[in-house]
Sequence to fold (802 residues):
Amino acid sequence: MHASPPLLPQPLRDDLHLRHDRLRAALEPLGADALILALNTNLIYASGTVMNGWFYLPAEGAPVYFYRRPSNFAAWLPEFETVAVRRPEEIAAHLAAAGRPLPRRLALAGDELPAAEWLRLGTCFPEAELVNGTSAVRGVRAVKAAYEIECMRAGCRQHASVVATFPSFYRRGMTDLDFSIALEHAMRRNGSLGIFRTYGGRMEIFMGSVLAGDNAAAPSVYDFALGGAGMHPTIPIGANRTPLREGQTVMVDLAGNFNGYHSDCSRTYAIGAVPERVREAHNVSIAISEALAREGRSGTPCEALYTLALQLADEAGLAKHFMGYHQQAKFVGHGVGLEINELPVLAARIKGNLESGMILALEPKFVFPGVGPVGVENTYLVTDTGLEKLTLCDEALVTLG
Amino acid sequence: MHASPPLLPQPLRDDLHLRHDRLRAALEPLGADALILALNTNLIYASGTVMNGWFYLPAEGAPVYFYRRPSNFAAWLPEFETVAVRRPEEIAAHLAAAGRPLPRRLALAGDELPAAEWLRLGTCFPEAELVNGTSAVRGVRAVKAAYEIECMRAGCRQHASVVATFPSFYRRGMTDLDFSIALEHAMRRNGSLGIFRTYGGRMEIFMGSVLAGDNAAAPSVYDFALGGAGMHPTIPIGANRTPLREGQTVMVDLAGNFNGYHSDCSRTYAIGAVPERVREAHNVSIAISEALAREGRSGTPCEALYTLALQLADEAGLAKHFMGYHQQAKFVGHGVGLEINELPVLAARIKGNLESGMILALEPKFVFPGVGPVGVENTYLVTDTGLEKLTLCDEALVTLG
Fold:
């Protein structure tokens, strides 16, 4: 017989209670009396693992994991109620048989849940009004629980240790693609799980992007800071076989995923000598990051960090190079977690403040036509007194070759 | 200034007209007078490229590409109507201003389109009844158009040429994960775009799976033929650091994606000597594949191929090893294209017949507790006279080490 899966770690299982409490609290402003989560990322948040099924959380009472697969799912989470089902119609039947009230107002993560599944769950709970709980769930996920912070600290540490080795993979005559492939390989060999999750599913990307020269200025179909044309129209992002030539810069922005949680860390390299003003702009990026990390803490308005970054870029005479050249991204940072692009967004007209336990990437970047991109990106933990940098490795514009 | 993107290739642009005609024909049984596609894979099908926007196809008349990004999208497809928009509400306004009738029954791909977008498009077309067009669109995509077949032929050829080198990457003392990482690297270095698209989005997987020994029998959360426990509960698929030990088998099932279209090809290797009955089962897999390829052609019921595979496995005394051991997958093949798991599915109770131009993967596999998986998988083109194998490379159970 095959072995049972190992129990999920105790600190994770303790954390799940916390997460469920926070999800419950988020139902109140929606007036919802229950939540059902059904897609991988939210199920990982609610259970620590991917399951094929539905996580049912009432506003009052214990949650139930209704699962279709794997067949041994119940062994993962012995202290929670797990129920094997084949179809979502069995959820309501099970609740009714257990004497539990059926929801009158049911929250579903409608920004991502497919329409057909939304409509089907509606017929499973004909008495319930459906409400879109995506923003509420994303808001909860933005503030990391204790074990999540531990995972992200460890992931960022591992990520930074691999990034520190990146310059050693450069060889004269490489293209951006060759360099990207060598670095992806280094990430995998050092524990990256490879998979790169983005919110919304439209921003499909392989392990990240390596952008050299004018490819950094290619108008992107995606909402990433810098895009790149990519190797093929079916995946228009990242390296496009630009030769790494003397006088250019190359930025490496590969996502870490060492334990399900992402880390975000970009570093830039010069190929031989690059213009002094480009070097200076790289230092401005580091200075802006440091200013934002001093300014940001629990209670800081998200918008204030963007305004400050914009102001510092402008004072340095770099406004038109900031966050792109022909097409400029309108943010300077974003939450990071189970997905690379979580809440909050640090941009203009964003309501809301930083909270302790949020984890953010700050990425003040500049693009110079004819040369390439410069700047750094780091992942930070929001605390009551500031932003604590988690991706610690050399930030200087290292010269390759 | 940045360069415009290159025009998409002329044979692709010609193909788009064909694809649009087929989509139009599929609207008729739905009684729909228009279709809107909004997610990446369907947009690639309709345009050859990823765009951020909506593809609008009326049952009568020319299609319109409503795009938000990239800003230079219009340059890609000069012979089609392209309209820059910010919000979906502008679609109806544009059609009305152009004197074009608004749909009364609008098809959307509701099995994947998020509920919030379905509801919003509903408010954009308040007079229209919404119908779920997913099955219709997937049915159209199952039968490849001329240029798609050309792409898939080229992709399968490239994939097979890389698979032929896989044995050279084996080193004594490797785990399945080490081997997987080495082969992923070989795929990338030889042109793989890396990204692996699955229908439905729930079956998240990195580049594919390398399964050794008893990991091949792990009950999977996914609907793949064989799963594997994976390295972490957040991505429970594939290699799990099983040491490649004498007496075991290891199956490599990495997806090809060399031009947007997937190819599917599995090969199995023996680590040193493995039991004779396991070697024989590998040959049974090859024999079943050959029998199905002779039997299958335009008009063959999909179900008939599954029944035949099951019968041949049973006659060989291998029924309980077929398609898994503890948890057995209930199909023997599936369509392949822009996603790895397209229509048709070759399984029991599947209505419908093969059609010329479909592209299928056949994967009759066996799992032996204590030893591992055996079998081959190949990608085939359905023709009027049979199945033409596109992934041509050695199928024997090669011994490594």
About this structure: Chain B has two domains: 10-141, 143-400.
